[in-house]
Records
---
Amino acid sequence: MIDRNFKKVIILITRKLPEKIEKKLENNFSVILNKNDRKYSYKDLKKKIQNVDILVPCVSDTIDASIIKSGSKLKLIANFGNGVDNIDLTTAKERKLIVTNTPDVLTEDTADLVLTMILMICRKINVAQQKIMNRVWTGWGPSETLGEKLQGKKVGIIGMGRIGTAVAKRLSTIGMEINYHNRKKHNKKIETQFKANYWSSLDQMISKMDIISIHCPFTAETFHLLSKNRIRLLKKNCIVINTSRGEIIDEQALADALFKKKIGGAGLDVFEHEPQITQKLFDSDNVVLLPHISSATKESRIAMGERVFKNISYFLKQKKPPDLVKIKKTEY
Ligand code: 8YV
């Protein structure tokens, strides 16, 4: 139980969170829940935020300057998620708001999904499964559904932070060659652990890779980082994996390249204009398209909720919240 006075603190939670988390928040604060989990319209959110002290948004909510300004009492935005690109951080800073997120707890699940998509694409799991499901499998054949061996493939990790490193750990275990591009080169320990090669030039790295996996946050600098021109640099068999944010890739250019078979495949869990998806991606072979589920495990969602609770509690006790977002700095 937290200080009784905190019962007066009004918290708006934009989406339905795990039962256990909602109860915990309700027991300690005055909470406005979204029981049926229907996404608030922009207009509704603007209205709902008016008397709120703390906002708990998700990736599906755009918290822009106008929304922030409507929350005249707002003091803290405790994001339920790692990426904070859904929040206008500049306005938040101007209005002296504190912003927190939920890092760490979704790292392993996200890395698992990267591995899953690489396996699905390289081993043509969708095609193989469809054969069975469509009842057209006539039996084993030496040339049936031939995929690509993972061992020995070169993977280029763009942004080797927490999630990128967890991906490197998995892929080096299965014998892939780890390459990475970061603003800062990692220390020798990490490089030795994963036999990771650092590339200061993104262009040079991506032009040599069999697989590239994106793990940098979406910021003004990383918008269309994988641009049309960079997609042209990719090898013909290159597979592009994205579990970060759709805006980091020029989706139309990627879809064109896939459709024209200029690259080998793509595993996308995020899209530039979610939930809309570029039509050509549906019409392309060798794609795995998933509905932003990289951290969608029951355990992660509860852990994310616990982080939100902790950040709120620390903030209210006037202690530095553990997951304070430093507004100027980016991880990438
Ligand atoms: C979360 C994510 O599911 O945390 C992130 O940055 O992209 C997702 O995995 C989502 O953000 C929840 O708000």
---
Amino acid sequence: MISKDTNVVILTGAGISAESGIRTFRDSNGLWENHRIEEVATPEGWRANPQLVWNFYQQRRRQLLEVEPNQGHEALVRLENYLENFLLVTQNVDDLHERAGSKNLIHMHGELAKLRCESCHHVETLMDEEHLKETFLSCSEGEGRLRPHIVWFNEMPMGMAEIEKALSECDVFIAIGTSGHVYPAANFLHTAKRRGAHTIGINLEPPENVHFFDEFFQGKAGEILPLLVEKWTR
Ligand code: OAD
């Protein structure tokens, strides 16, 4: 079903990083069970209590230093290396895909490793020890305060034009480890289907949109993906 010239778009969510030890959002003990979304993941929350929001993301940024990519991330690198047309879109803000070796990658919800100036919007990767504390940081280009380079609720996801173009041209769309609750990502499946793509889902639990996939594999991404990629690239 997949050959070297098949045009593949992949969407990943928190589930692919779960086996690396990063908590998902909506599973039991997920991040959103222990935090109020409106307090830590909205522009209003940042304006109301920036220290709370800053501490929340600094803790998650520090966690990046303790986790490693898993076999799911690594299998996607092998698939990318085999294909001529491949785009990986992730909703994840961790850096495990790029650390595994993924190249053609869009972080549609932003990146924990980067910070952005509130005034001039300059973006910097800042992950040294002095950047991971609870004190606010200033922009290296001016006076502005840095905020997490994260897409909060009510903000525009990143890279949408490129993602929509890739979806409109893809032959196969694969969603991995995402509950299908958050838009616009949850709509990518429908966009790909309208284009006539074959659609595949891989998830621990059946996601919200499970019935719309042509094929669905239930289980852990780190176990299923290496087997599927081995079969597809044989
Ligand atoms: P969710 O926490 O909503 O869903 C994670 C999905 O991964 C669930 O359906 C789990 O069943 C599944 N899962 C867990 N472990 C898995 C494993 N080992 N292998 C495969 N699947 C597994 O996370 P997302 O769908 O990524 O946005 O959430 C989407 C967005 O909602 C996030 O990007 C974040 C959040 O609010 C922002 O913060 C902007």
